[in-house]
Amino acid sequence: MKKLLLASTALIGFAGVAAAEVAIEGTAEMGFTGGDLKETQFHNSYTINFKMSGETDTGLSFGATYRLDADGSSEENQNPVGDNGTVWISGAFGKLTLGDTDGALDWALTETAMGTAITDEGTTHVGYSGNGDNYYDDQVLRYEYAFGDFGVALSVEQDDGNSATSTGDGDPMIGLGGKYKAELGGVDLSFGLGYQTGDTLRYAFQGVNFLDAIGVQYVSVDVLGVSAKAAMDNGFSAVVNYVTYDYGSSVPDLEHYGLGLGYEMGALLVHANWGKWEIEDFDSFDSFGLIANYDLGGGAILAAGYASDVSTDDGDQDQFSLGLSLSF
Amino acid sequence: MKKLLLASTALIGFAGVAAAEVAIEGTAEMGFTGGDLKETQFHNSYTINFKMSGETDTGLSFGATYRLDADGSSEENQNPVGDNGTVWISGAFGKLTLGDTDGALDWALTETAMGTAITDEGTTHVGYSGNGDNYYDDQVLRYEYAFGDFGVALSVEQDDGNSATSTGDGDPMIGLGGKYKAELGGVDLSFGLGYQTGDTLRYAFQGVNFLDAIGVQYVSVDVLGVSAKAAMDNGFSAVVNYVTYDYGSSVPDLEHYGLGLGYEMGALLVHANWGKWEIEDFDSFDSFGLIANYDLGGGAILAAGYASDVSTDDGDQDQFSLGLSLSF
Amino acid sequence: MKKLLLASTALIGFAGVAAAEVAIEGTAEMGFTGGDLKETQFHNSYTINFKMSGETDTGLSFGATYRLDADGSSEENQNPVGDNGTVWISGAFGKLTLGDTDGALDWALTETAMGTAITDEGTTHVGYSGNGDNYYDDQVLRYEYAFGDFGVALSVEQDDGNSATSTGDGDPMIGLGGKYKAELGGVDLSFGLGYQTGDTLRYAFQGVNFLDAIGVQYVSVDVLGVSAKAAMDNGFSAVVNYVTYDYGSSVPDLEHYGLGLGYEMGALLVHANWGKWEIEDFDSFDSFGLIANYDLGGGAILAAGYASDVSTDDGDQDQFSLGLSLSF
């Protein structure tokens, strides 16, 4: 994946100078997907990643990322979309990142999904949560600092008035997160704890913003989340993840429960995750995702995925995929 | 053209590791164009090609291509368009390619055009045919296999319901193609034979879809094509190309005849091609294209082009161009 | 900034071959901006530059540039915009450039701005002028030739009918420019003189085309400009810039005055510029920009900017920014 970077690093050693550079990585997918909501069909997709890095005279590292995504249908792929744009600077003081990056809670918590599928069945089923941001326009400033086995982060996402539906009057979303790693009798443990508080323009499932439907522009929200992961030497690993969203009176509170289990043996990874959204006094959605990956080496993974339900509509609408996930 | 690839390969030899990589190539054009349908004007254009490649542990090759096109007018060039997105894997079993690639008929047949022109006079005149696909959304899966002087391919383009005008009910377009190469008394011969059958959303000349006009959504079509090319040691070459399109009763059948002649001497290439579309019981269009190329070396070609007729309107609407075609 | 180019050059020396290549450079910005017309907010942006170059067998150099810009708000950055597309060829005869490049007047004159700011306060205040083109669709052909301390350029921007509001009937904008450099008692002097004449589709301030408002499609204009720059050994430099726009009777004539002062000491650059637009018998706008840059090395600059007025509305609407400007 980082081969041009590797190449440049080798060169830099050769030439005896350190230098700012742009490394290019890419991904591609090839296979088929189907399910209750779409015809069984071929899928091919591409991303091009630009990874920029440099170093100041005093030894501060800095860099930026920007990605072109062409990961939709054949016709959508004619209009590549910019994504994952971030700028960062790091040194003894920690690391400061600005852009389309994780808020402190999302940064601290471990998601339940493992492995990959060409149409993302492990992470797109209706009961799944990525602990994500996107309270306003996804422009997050995050400061992080690591000391020993601990890491902490502070983040802010501001209502800068640049979003289509924003007046600029919302309170900023402030986040605080912590991580801790330990080893206990051959088991690698990691814990995450995160808290975010502020206003948001969105109260959404599956990309639908329900605030529009009820004519409310902003709601305040307190988000509290915890996660724990255990990875055993024998290849088994497990993740639990719990997040509660405490809204003001306008909309129901939310809770999310997640559980992920994985097993790796040589080139094989099998994984299952289950998640559940509970909407206060109203309804709940739960579903699961299954992933099987076989690493062919050199950046190629044979990937199968199954999602039990990909829509909030009544009943279960499943989805599956099988194909190659390629990294360059 | 493949210089970063070359660079990376050299480095990889240096570092002693084989690795997945992204190579960047580019093209640019500079010159002027004019004709009956446009003012004589300057033309400049760009494409950026991302070529990804890797190898699995068992020696299968895999890769992907994606291209950004900015090859329109100055203002259009502000919105680059993604094109030529393909993913492939190959090995002893043959090669499997998915994406914006040739169907088996197009793969098998040799087009009549040779050389280049900055505004494509050799391939855009009204009587020209590229034997092209685009029956649905241009997402083609093609399997190909070569043995000795023979090559065969099988392809499918599915109606996956993702096109704007598609219900997803069309039969897939299935293609079968074969190639054969031989040398006969100092003449390199190559033959192509292709057959495709299925439904399509399009019955189009010059980018206009006549199915819309007559209120028909799908038509079935059987396409049969042959081509032959002869290239002589003295620099002369000739291509003949014939394709017949047998539609159901909704729309007239089509036939296309093409002839291309070329002569190469040192850095010089001169070329002419003629093509004719015959529309059953209705009308026909024929026209020719002329190309002169002088290879300046290093990736630069001085290119002149003339097309006798670029519109299906009555009479001949010609077009010409002169400029530099550059490859990086 | 030119690190992959450097890398490739090193490799080329290593491999002993000269070759066409695509070098990738990038820029990124990180910081905050605010002022009378916007909330104080974070700013992050990206550009990816593709620089293509090659050489013919007879030693002519050729190349092309194309840039993807994602330098707006977080949501705008999802749609990168193509910019700065140019193709060029150069040799003993001079250099010919076609595309989004400076006309001869803009090429000859030195702008008053120095240094950088993440939201461009030095160059976007209402009284500033970049001496720019954009008479039609920004597609300029420029020929330039240098001899000793002199340089001359000739340019043409044609009304090719490809702009949205163009009929193709406007006279081309023809430009002529000259530069001269000299050293006088430890002071580096440079002088520029430019003249352009033709029609234009635009009579604009701050991006608003006033021709639309008054129902006029084309106006003829004669533009005459001069600039002078003096750079002293002690780090001080000064630029004066004067351009007059003589329109036909349809719209008032314009005059622009500009003055820039700078001081560099080690890693520090401080700069101020002032500019004034005078609209004949009507009104005038003047404003200033302030820049402070500290070069952190390795491509990172700490940049502060202040613009006294960024709108033609009554009163002053100021703007400021502080952040990191990064080059890769």
UniProtKB/TrEMBL annotation, chains A, B, C:
GO MF term list: porin activity
Pfam families: Porin_4
Name the UniProt record assigns to this protein: Porin domain-containing protein
Signal peptide range: 1-20
Keyword Endoplasmic reticulum: no
Family matches, as SUPFAM superfamilies: Porins (SSF56935)
Organism: Frigidibacter mobilis
InterPro entries in the cross-refs: Gram_neg_porin_domain (IPR033900), Porin_dom_sf (IPR023614)
Domain Porin: 7-309
